[in-house]
Amino acid sequence: MGVGLVEPVDDLRATNPPTNPALWAALKAEFVAKRYDLRQLMRLVLTSRAYQLSAATRAGNATDDRYYSHYYARRLPAEVLLDAICDVTGVPERFDGYPLGTRAVQVPDPGAAPYFLKTFGRSERVTACACERSGDVNLASVLHLVGGDPTTGKVANPSGWLARTLAAEKDDETLLDALFLRTVGRTPTADERTRIAGFRARAADRAEFHRDVFWALLNSKEFLFNR
Length: 227
Known about the structure:
By secondary structure, the protein is mainly α.
């Protein structure tokens, strides 16, 4: 859900009550009745109307961040985001002491983590507290996405997915569909096609233009956030 009935989730005490005591009691009763079956509890939550709400807000709930009136969009965790960038660009990240192709989620050692993971709030694992991890959006993380190597370097990598696809696919419309499908899982809308076609008409370098489109998609909210 993105936020706990009790927040922080590990601060269970009488002076920090749940936001919805009735729901808290019902979930506890359900958990006990199903013999502490976590899968059953998860199924109950995942099939609920509250869990399936969209991130769209109304005038009365736009600032709500606690009562589940809409889905709370949140940025992908540091390791997941880095792995996603590596997957779509086709350029794996290198971790000191680990073979090439190791995913960020497979690296337990904070000392082997690149600057990207630290910038995006990966836990240093000094304590067992979940508060060590940060999902906040800050200037450092934004700048790292805009101009850092994980985006600009991997997008322009001559052995990456885009370079190979540019050489194999000469039709710009087909390539545009491939870029959208690879990054945000859909084809461009009619308005997006029109706007991108306008930029393409003014672009002198085909490869540079598509690198810019790829870079823009990697920096879009649709790619960076669960929404």
